[in-house]
Amino acid sequence: MISDKMQEAINQQINAEMFSAYLYLSMSAWCSDKRYDGFAQWFKVQAQEEMAHAMKFYDYIFEQGGQVKLLAIDAPKAKYASLMDCAKKQLEHEKKVTALINGLMDIAKKEKDYATDITLQWFISEQVEEEKNAEEIIGKLEMIGDTGRAIYMLDKEMGKRKFEED
Question: Which domains does the chain have, with CATH numbers?
Answer without folding.
Answer: 4-71+79-158 (1.20.1260.10)
